[in-house]
Specification:
The structure holds two protein chains of two kinds. Chain A is an alpha/beta fold. Chain A has eleven helices and ten strands. Chain B has a two-stranded antiparallel sheet with strand order 1-2. In chain B, a hairpin with a 2-residue loop joins strand 1 and strand 2. The termini of chain B are far apart. Classes of the chains: A alpha/beta, B mainly alpha. Bound molecules: adenosine-5'-triphosphate (ATP) and magnesium ion (MG).
């Protein structure tokens, strides 16, 4: 059970003056239950890559396998794939269209052929899961705040009960609190349902805190792929492609340079605090 | 997928056509269109074909791009051709039930088809070699004489044709086309990710499936329009009064040459059509004399 990306190339507007080679020979395997972070400078091809995973974009070259089956094969049920690989777009609140929140979230399950009652049940479940209380069920999606709209839109995908959840910068444009709430909820969801999550993000702090595998893209290619610790060890190369390691990485590096015997691989504030405490204890 | 619509899209390249003053290109397109209606004979059409091919060659825009504009009118083209093919009277060539094709029908259908195709190709050359901004600049300048006319609405009030505003509206509308297409693409994908199906089903189901696409699209269009209005006001936009241009349009010698070329082409086409007419008249002359002769004979 996995998503396998094999030698995928993608070119936008092929054969025109505006040709852009957005993906270059990408190879990946995403296993069940992983929490994957996908980072990269703007324009590096993250959004393009994730749209391949549920078949919205067809690779110009290469193959994609979902649970071992070639999704470009004849008669492959793309609609089913899209329900199993849920994709939440950047600024998903722009896709809301119904007169009330509940109806909007029902849109996905109903498209999958569920009855009204079943769809509503799934929609309500999904709404609670993203922290939207019952009092909002009948409100118009356009009266909600930005963060609430975002949650409703995420619920719209969750209601289809995907096995893989892909989120394209789910926290863009939210305040720090809204950001933490959404990310906490996603990681709770992941533990609760045991689904695979792919999180596209610009924030190194966020990915370091939540994910257990980190993929770095640069100009349409996969540059690094490993645990956050392994990847952030290359903080100098990351700089060159316009990315930073989490701030604590730099702090630990300078502590080390000043002669402190600390673990420089710490990527979150908690790990760093532990490392410093351990070193202080050792010195006493 | 949706971005492949080229009508009204600019193709960046370095060619003489790209550098021409937009007014020249507007006038030339108009003259070319008129010439298509003047032309009736194979010679006239041949000339229009040569002219069009040369212009397309000169524009350095790949031919594939031109034909993309044609795809969007293929339905219209087929219907028009079919109507002419089946409905024009003449000598019957082929018949099936109430359908029949006549020699005249074939002739007109071919002519109308060629006319439509050349019309689209001709205007595509203009839009592909002119940025939308240049195009509206050209239109505004071309419409400038209209500013002199007004309708008096009382002693102090005059209604003038709002030339500048019209041009501004048009340039904004043109600017919004690619933006809205992109937005459509995005929303479509987002709804497809939620299992929406825009392709299958009957007409009613298809129309219903458009709601999840159109509602967010309209909202976003209004939001963008509002943002733009705000941004324009914040930069003190107050309409055309006293507004000057950063790059005023000015004719160069190549523009004058271009006017010469297009007028020359038009004169030749007209002359040839006239020539064909006169020739036809002369050729028919003996027959006419025969008729008159026989008519006189019948009295004797
Ligand atoms: N619909 C499109 N048509 C043409 N080119 C596109 C389209 N979408 C993206 N591109 C181009 O493809 C490249 C990769 O874009 P992509 O959106 O995948 O980047 P990204 O990593 O998601 O960036 P960001 O962090 O800004 O979201 C960019 O150069 C972009 O300009
Ligand atoms: Mg993106």
């Amino acid at each position: 059970m996995s998503i396998k990306v094999k030698n995928v190339n993608y070119t936008y507007s092929e054969g025109t003056a505006y040709e852009i080679h957005a993906l270059k020979d990408v190879n990946l395997e995403i296993l069940d239950g992983q929490f994957v972070g996908l980072i990269g400078h703007t324009g590096s091809g993250k959004s393009t890559l994730i749209q391949h995973l549920n078949g919205l974009i067809r690779a110009t070259e290469g193959k994609i396998y979902f649970n071992g089956r070639d999704i470009y094969g004849e008669k492959y049920p793309l609609k089913e794939l899209r329900s199993k690989v849920g994709l939440v777009f950047q600024y998903p609140e722009y896709q809301l269209f119904e007169t009330d929140v509940l109806k909007d979230v029902c849109f996905g399950p109903k498209n999958l052929g569920y009855s009204q009652e079943e769809a509503e049940k799934k929609a309500k479940e999904a709404l609670r899961m993203v922290g939207m209380g019952e009092e909002y069920d009948q409100s118009s999606p356009f009266e909600l705040s930005g963060g609430q709209k975002r949650r409703v839109a995420i619920a719209g995908v969750l209601a289809m009960e995907p096995e893989v959840l892909i989120l394209d910068e789910p926290t863009a444009g939210l305040d720090p609190r809204g950001r933490d709430e959404i990310l906490d909820q996603i990681s709770y969801l992941k533990r609760e349902r045991g689904i695979t999550v792919i999180l596209v993000s610009h924030s190194m702090e966020d990915v370091a805190r939540y994910v257990d595998r980190l993929i770095v893209m640069n100009q349409g290619q996969v540059r690094f792929d490993g645990t956050p610790r392994e990847v952030f060890r290359h903080y100098q190369e990351l700089r060159e492609i316009g990315l930073d390691a989490p701030q604590v990485t730099y702090l630990m590096k300078s502590l080390k340079e000043k002669g402190a015997h600390v673990d420089v691989d710490a990527t979150t504030v908690e790990e760093a605090a532990d490392a410093i405490a351990a070193w202080l204890k050792e010195r006493e | 997928m949706i971005r492949d619509i080229t009508l009204g899209q600019y193709y960046p390249a370095k060619s003489i056509l790209h550098e021409l003053d937009p007014r020249v290109k507007l006038a030339a397109t108009m003259i070319f269109v008129i010439s298509l209606f003047v032309a009736r004979s194979p010679v006239g059409y041949g000339l229009a074909t040569i002219f069009l091919v040369l212009v397309i060659r000169m524009s350095k825009v790949p031919f594939r791009f031109m034909t993309k504009g044609l795809k969007s009118i293929i339905m219209l083209l087929m219907i028009t051709v079919a109507f002419n093919l089946f409905l024009v009277d003449g000598n019957t060539l082929w018949r099936l039930g109430f359908l029949r094709i006549t020699d005249k029908g074939v002739q007109t259908a071919v002519m109308v088809g060629i006319r439509l195709i050349y019309l689209i190709l001709g205007s595509s050359v203009m839009t592909l070699t002119t940025t939308p901004n240049d195009l509206t600049d050209g239109l505004e300048k071309a419409m400038e004489p209209l500013k002199k006319f007004y309708i008096p609405l009382g002693p102090l009030k005059k209604f003038r044709i709002p030339v500048h505003d019209m041009a501004m509206i048009m340039s904004i509308a043109l600017r919004f086309i690619p933006i809205l297409l992109e937005e459509t693409d995005k929303i479509m994908k987002a709804q497809m990710a939620r299992g929406a199906d825009f392709e299958s089903g009957n007409l009613i189901q298809k129309a219903k499936a458009m709601v999840p696409l159109l509602a967010p699209l309209f909202l976003s269009a209004f939001r963008r329009a509002m943002d733009l209005a705000l941004a324009m006001e914040a930069r003190c936009y107050r309409g055309g009064e006293g507004r000057t241009k950063m790059k005023p349009l000015k004719y160069e010698s190549r523009d004058r040459t271009a006017y010469g070329v297009i007028l020359g082409y038009f004169l030749i086409v007209t002359a040839i059509e006239r020539g064909v007419q006169i020739y036809g008249w002369i050729v028919a002359l003996p027959g006419r004399w025969m008729a008159v002769y026989q008519w006189i004979l019948s009295f004797l």
